[in-house]
Input
Amino acid sequence: MTDSLDRRLVATLYADGRADVRSLAAETDTAATTVQDRLRALEDDGIITGYAARLGYDRLGYETAIFQLAVDHENIDAVTARLREKPAFVTVYETSGHHTVVAVGKFGDENAIGSCLQELHADAAVRAVDVVRVDVVSEADCPIAPE
Output
């Protein structure tokens, strides 16, 4: 991000992804045309990659599970690509240490978690997999503080 205005725009959009240019302009005390230009630049630079609703998965009956996978480095790209294709996984990380891939998933029930676990155990590129069910305490908070 290039400056304070960009940070304020991103933080404001994170809090309300449905905010229109006029409300963003009012919130940041900036001309609407400037806000529109900045948003376009943030999109072009890949800083803003899209606009989406944040869901209360627990209210929809979903369970959150974290899958920790031990994958050899030469297989990481292929494994993370397969995980990204699965709608249940909302976040996939490449990490250092024993667990080289960590994926956070939202599952409709225990059976869905178990099926995914079995599939990953059968994947020849995955040396080991651990899964932990978690209760979400906080999710989707914006780490970018407006300046």
Observations:
- The longest helix spans residues 32-44.
- The longest strand covers residues 63-71.
- Residues 61 and 113 are 13 Å apart (CA to CA).
